[in-house]
Amino acid sequence: MKNYGHILWKQIKVSGFLVLAYHDKYFKQFMAEIPARVASGEIKYTEDKRRGLESVGQTLYDVQKGNNTGKAIIIVADD
Known about the structure:
alpha+beta
């Protein structure tokens, strides 16, 4: 293994998309600020809505390739 010494003597930190270590610290502040900013229009977002289970495969493919235009949502029922 190359550069094994760097792993032993230096620090490395890897975090995924969900960083739950900060949940308790920032959850109340997040809930106090972000929903109000979304409701006021200060924070904008888009949704990429698709209908039916037959669109699941293409939707996953588009998300992985970066071809979606917003949060990918698959609508399976109108209820």
